[in-house]
Structure formats: C-alpha cells, structure tokens
Amino acid sequence: MTRIHLIDAHTVLYGIIGKPVRHSLSPAMHNAAFQHEKINAVYLAFETDDCPQACSSMRCLDIKGYSVTIPNKEDIVPLLDKTDHAVQKIGACNTIKNVNGTLVGTNTDWLGAITALEKSGITLKGAKTVILGAGGSARAVAYGLLEREAKVTICNRTLEKAQQLALEFGCEYASLSEAEKIHADILVNTTSVGMANLSDKSPISKKGVENYQIIMDIVYNPLETVLLRYAKAAGKITINGLYMLLYQAMAQFEYWTGQKAPEKIMRKALEYGVQ
Ligand code: ATR
C-alpha cells in the first residue's frame, strides 16, 4: 500500500499558473508522482495571468516549481533570471525551477513530443517530418525535431506564418493543403482542428494521411481525433495527445526533483483524469 505523506511544516509547494487552469491534468499527475515517490510536496493549480505577481509569489513563498500554461508561456520569459536554449529558441517557457530565489526556466513541451515519437521506435535523425500548424505548439515540436536532426516541413493555413517560422528555424514550409501531397515518415498535427468544437474535422484528408507512416496528434480532447481515426483505418502507427502531455510532465518532475519520474503512476493519473 502506498503511504500518503502528511502535509506538515516541511511540505514543499509546486503549482501550475495559467488562465483558465481548472481543466488541467497536471495536478493529478504530479501529486500522484510525489505521493508514490514519498516526496513531501504538493502541487496546486493557480488561476492567474499575472506573471510578475506569480514570479514574486514564487520567490516570497519559496514555491519550488511552476508549470506554466496558456496564456503565460511567452509573457513569463523576460521575468526569469535564467533560461536555457530551448526557451530562447521556442520563445516560451513551460517549466520554472526556483533555485534559492533564482528563477530558472526551461521548456519540456518539445521533449514531451520527441519522447512520444521516439517511444514508437523511430529514429528521428534524417527522418522526413511534416508539422501541421505554425503556432506555439508547432514551434516546440519543430525545435525538438530539428534538435534530433530530422528534416522538417511546416504546413500552415496562413502561409506567411509557416514561412516566417521556417525562416527562423531553417526548415521547409508549405501551405496546409500541400500536406496532402507530401510523402514523409511522420506527420504531427499541432493545429486545433479535431479539438472539441472542431471535433468532426481533420486537418488533412483520408487520402492525404496515406502518405505518412506515423501520425501524431497533440490534441487530446477527444482522445481519438478524426485524423487518428483515418490513420488507424489506413494501418498507420498513431500517437494520441496524451503522450506529449505525459512525457512533458515526467520531464518536469525530473527537472525539479532530480529523480526518475514514475511513468505508470503518472500515466494512470492522466488516464483517470481524461475519462
Ligand atoms: P498553439 O499555441 O496551441 O500552437 P496557436 O498559437 O493559436 O495555438 O496556433 C494555432 C494553430 O492552429 C495555427 O497554426 C492555426 O493556423 P493559422 O496560423 O492559419 O491561424 C491553426 N488553426 C487553427 N484553426 C484552424 C483551422 N480551422 N484550420 C486550419 N488551421 C487552423
């Protein structure tokens, strides 16, 4: 039986800052991990878009770590004392560690996406990949794929945004409709097409999906998007949005604690949360 640590005067505080934040699955995952590893810590959801106040609260109350979500990921960057290469290149921070009052920012979103792909067994070096979308999530996925030396094409509805991102990152770009014609190893959807209010749509057609081998969707609500349904029907390897979420959270846990994250426990908490 897992013994739940009692909250006492030594309990360390972590949390997520975002607005809205009540739907977040991060508290369930991180608290499950802390309890399982018998770490005397709790993780709460703080609904705020006031980044300066959130940073001073962190210093003042000695909050050890934040996950950062919409709309704070970009705004928080200039307020941090140190940031790594990933944050600087992606332009967004999703993880802060408070090291004796020094706020250090990293980004584990890219690692979440890359781990999800690598766990499917593919070697990313030299792989031909297509990213649908050119927003914040696309930046994180593109950063990760380029770090692993994959070949990247960014396809977006608004072509200028794809062009701008491709220029900045040094990769290829095309319109969203072009993604139908490209043949590649991996397709990653980072657009919101397939999400709740657009849940009956796929960013590319059933026929277009046939040109790819592995199809990953970062949308996790619903778990099986129309895109993934097309991919499954075509016999492709599919990766749903829960994996990126799980692996970015595991990377956060490891960054904060220096301990290996309990994958099964965090996965169970996540799956329970999306039911
Ligand atoms: P995130 O931070 O999750 O990436 P974002 O920065 O708002 O969110 O980016 C959303 C992406 O989804 C964009 O690439 C957007 O395309 P545009 O640049 O053309 O706006 C894409 N997107 C949103 N709705 C879409 C739709 N109905 N069809 C195609 N692409 C869509």
Shape: globular
Ligands (ions, cofactors included): 2'-monophosphoadenosine-5'-diphosphate
Cross-sheet strand order for the largest sheet: 2-1-3-5-6-4
Distance between the termini: 24 Å
Number of strands: 12
Give an account of the 3D structure:
- With 275 residues, the protein is of the alpha/beta class.
- Helix content is 37%, strand content 22%.
- The chain is built from 10 helices and 12 strands.
- Strands 2-1-3-5-6-4 form a 6-stranded mixed beta sheet, sandwiched between helices. The protein has a 6-stranded parallel beta sheet with strand order 9-8-7-10-11-12, with helices on both faces.
- The longest helix is centred in the C-terminal third of the chain and has 16 residues.
- The mean pLDDT is 96.
- The structure holds 2'-monophosphoadenosine-5'-diphosphate (ATR).
- 2'-monophosphoadenosine-5'-diphosphate binds next to helix 5.
SSE arrangement:
Elements: E1 12-18, H1 26-36, E2 41-47, H2 51-61, E3 65-68, E4 82-83, H3 85-90, E5 95-99, E6 102-106, H4 109-118, E7 128-132, H5 136-147, E8 151-156, H6 159-169, E9 172-175, E10 184-189, H7 206-209, E11 212-217, H8 226-233, E12 237-239, H9 242-257, H10 263-274
Parallel strand pairs: 1-2, 1-3, 4-6, 7-8, 7-10, 8-9, 10-11, 11-12
Antiparallel strand pairs: 3-5, 5-6
Helix pairs in contact: 1-9, 1-10, 4-5, 4-9, 9-10
The chain binds 2'-monophosphoadenosine-5'-diphosphate (ATR).
Residues 133-138, 156-158, 161, 176, 190-193, 203 line the site of 2'-monophosphoadenosine-5'-diphosphate.
